[in-house]
């Protein structure tokens, strides 16, 4: 279950490129999993314990398998992926469309993609299959955890159930395997086995990995793990001496009946610690969900890493240390017998410490390689331009170039040009990735060219400082994950201890529901919409879709890091109120305890 979820999150960038959709729509696809879960969570939670729970879990695994299968389906319906380029990989084909043609117009030359095939190409509505598949995957996920835990709790000894239910190893192993598979699939070209020579590099903004392959693997694995559950009995022999009355009480806690609903809701609404804690969780989860959803995209755009490398780095630097922090936090609570007010202080101050360290990420910036007409002028002067006409200059005025396509070349002056035509290149030699463009007038006219005014395919390399800044960012991320996860378990215990025993199951369920509705669904959507605003220029593709030009680093950094910083800063306001309430409750209970002990001392001789 967790492997499938981590894999889908790692493929968001590939899905965005394959279907030519904006990041905001990718956020909708990401949040659709939570939507599917919410569709059936009430039904499963209320009636699940009365049904054959192992078979319900098996059914959930099968439904998840069907969802993954549906997600991969568009790959087999859309045809081959054709990225926007005029460069031919064949020696017998003309590459003249990409270079400056002084005697012809670009409009007089044939287009690469026939319009009748556009409905099967990128930009079609095939992404709806991915959306529907993710919703179905969320529906299938619903019964697995609640019914699995209740099944174990009903038939295990009290001292054994925590061992059976303990999932620390699997909850980190699943996402780790999912991200590793995502890193591997992102290295493979989307049409693997059908296209031999691809002119794109892994770091090219048009590269699309084999996003569908991992979805097929997840579909198969989900189906296989569901089979054994079909053969488990509806009930198991009880391990302990627990009576039927106690068993009935447990089931009532796990699945409250309708008559208990209104009193429980009223009690929870009048619980200030519980309500404030929900507010803290929603705000902080909004920040974290948005960040982790688009973290591979951030590493790609900010530090020039390939999608494969970005996913791999997230898996190695973040997941293991988060698991370690959860374990150490729980161990410290058990060893030192930490009370509620102490738990709240540990959770608060570890979060504040991590928050302060987080601001160092604003210093770890790596500028994009300069792009003529977008981030620098054709003379090499730094500027940011959203005006399409700035892509034209005297050096390419007679070339009649298109400014809609994104087909970058790197001049030997270290400046990237939107296309070889806009670089003023009039000749080319070689094929595929080895193609070199010569006689580039814009490269020569920049005044900083030290070669023969030529250009090669792809972006210019970034400065050496980018690798150093990336290492600093990853170390900062590692430290922040460790510190924050250390306080996660004490913080969660504040929630648990704020509830009465009979309210715990229902209260935790409402807390999870609120988090999913208010954070899990909207956060990826508005984060994606904000990231779209940092796009420097949108180009029109041959099939009518829109393709994005590179994101300016400083704008992406300010939004990607700034929005979570603001959200988390706001979350500390209810945190302070929680600490004040708990402090008052602690003093009140301490006073009552001292009074009762004095009464015992006074009554002691009489009792004797």
Automatic annotation (TrEMBL):
One of its GO terms (biological process) is monoatomic ion transport. GO terms for molecular function: bile acid transmembrane transporter activity; sodium-independent organic anion transmembrane transporter activity. Residues 389-444 form the Kazal-like domain. It catalyses: L-thyroxine sulfate(out) = L-thyroxine sulfate(in); 3,3',5'-triiodo-L-thyronine(out) = 3,3',5'-triiodo-L-thyronine(in); L-thyroxine(out) = L-thyroxine(in). It is a multi-pass membrane protein. Residues 1-586 form the Major facilitator superfamily (MFS) profile domain. Gene3D superfamilies: 3.30.60.30, MFS general substrate transporter like domains. It holds the Pfam family OATP. It is found in: Cell membrane. The keyword Nucleus does not apply. Its main location: membrane. Keywords: Cell membrane, Disulfide bond, Glycoprotein, Ion transport, Lipid transport, Membrane, Transmembrane, Transmembrane helix, Transport. One of its GO terms (cellular component) is basolateral plasma membrane. The chain crosses the membrane at residues 21-44, 56-77, 172-190, 210-232, 273-295, 310-332, 344-365, 472-496, 508-531, 554-582. Belongs to the organo anion transporter (TC 2.A.60) family. This is Solute carrier organic anion transporter family member. The lineage of its organism: Eukaryota, Metazoa, Chordata, Craniata, Vertebrata.
């Amino acid at each position: 279950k967790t492997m499938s979820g981590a894999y889908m999150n790692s493929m968001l960038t590939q899905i965005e490129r394959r279907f030519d959709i904006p990041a905001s729509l990718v956020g909708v696809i990401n949040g659709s999993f939570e939507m599917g879960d919410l569709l059936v969570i009430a039904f499963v939670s209320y009636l699940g314990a009365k049904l054959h729970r192992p078979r319900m879990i098996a059914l959930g695994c099968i439904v998840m398998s069907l969802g993954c299968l549906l997600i991969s389906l568009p790959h087999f319906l859309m045809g081959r992926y054709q990225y926007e380029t005029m460069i031919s990989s064949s020696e017998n084909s003309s590459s003249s469309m990409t270079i400056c043609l002084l005697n012809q117009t670009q409009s007089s030359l044939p287009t690469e993609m026939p319009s009748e095939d556009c409905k099967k190409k990128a930009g079609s509505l095939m992404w709806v299959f991915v959306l529907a598949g993710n919703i179905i995957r969320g529906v299938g996920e619903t019964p697995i955890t609640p019914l699995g835990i209740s099944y174990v709790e009903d038939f295990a000894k009290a001292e054994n159930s925590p061992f059976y239910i303990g999932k620390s190893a699997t909850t980190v192993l699943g996402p780790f395997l999912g991200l590793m598979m995502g890193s591997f699939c992102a290295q493979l070209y989307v049409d693997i086995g059908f296209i031999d020579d691809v002119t794109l590099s892994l770091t090219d903004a048009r590269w699309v990995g084999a996003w569908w392959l991992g979805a097929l693997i997840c579909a198969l694995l989900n189906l296989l793990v569901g089979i054994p559950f079909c053969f488990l009995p509806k009930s198991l022999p009880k391990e302990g001496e627990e009576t039927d009355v106690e068993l009935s009480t447990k089931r009532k806690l796990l699945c409250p009946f309708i008559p208990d609903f209104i009193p429980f809701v009223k009690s929870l609404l009048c619980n200030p610690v519980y309500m404030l804690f929900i507010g803290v969780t929603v705000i902080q989860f909004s920040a974290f969900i948005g960040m982790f959803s688009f973290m591979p995209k951030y590493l790609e755009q900010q530090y020039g890493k390939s999608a494969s490398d970005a996913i791999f780095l997230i898996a190695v630097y973040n997941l293991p240390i988060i698991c370690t922090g959860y374990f150490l936090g729980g161990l410290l609570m058990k060893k030192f017998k930490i009370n509620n007010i102490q738990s709240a202080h540990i959770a608060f101050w570890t979060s504040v410490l991590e928050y302060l360290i987080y601001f160092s990420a604003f210093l770890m910036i790596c500028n994009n390689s300069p792009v003529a007409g977008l981030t620098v002028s054709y003379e090499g002067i730094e500027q940011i331009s959203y005006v399409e006409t700035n892509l034209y200059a005297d050096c390419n005025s007679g070339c009649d170039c298109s400014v809609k396509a994104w087909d970058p070349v790197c001049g030997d002056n270290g400046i990237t040009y939107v296309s070889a035509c806009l670089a003023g290149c009039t000749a080319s030699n070689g094929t595929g990735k080895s193609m070199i463009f010569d006689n580039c007038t814009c490269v020569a006219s920049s005044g900083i060219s030290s070669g023969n005014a030529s250009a090669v395919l792809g972006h210019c390399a970034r400065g050496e400082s980018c690798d150093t800044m990336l290492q600093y960012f990853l170390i900062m991320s590692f430290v922040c994950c460790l510190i924050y996860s250390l306080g996660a378990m004490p913080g969660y215990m504040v929630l648990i201890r704020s509830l009465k025993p009979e309210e715990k199951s229902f209260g935790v369920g409402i807390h999870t529901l609120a988090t999913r509705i208010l954070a899990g669904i909207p956060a990826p959507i508005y984060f994606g919409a904000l990231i779209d605003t940092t796009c420097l220029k949108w180009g029109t593709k041959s099939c009518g879709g829109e393709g994005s030009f590179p994101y300016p680093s400083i704008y992406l950094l300010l939004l990607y890091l700034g929005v979570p910083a603001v959200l988390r800063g706001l979350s500390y306001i209810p945190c302070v109120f929680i600490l004040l309430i708990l402090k008052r409750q602690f003093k009140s209970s301490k006073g009552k305890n001292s009074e009762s002990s004095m009464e015992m001392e006074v009554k002691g001789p009489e009792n004797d």
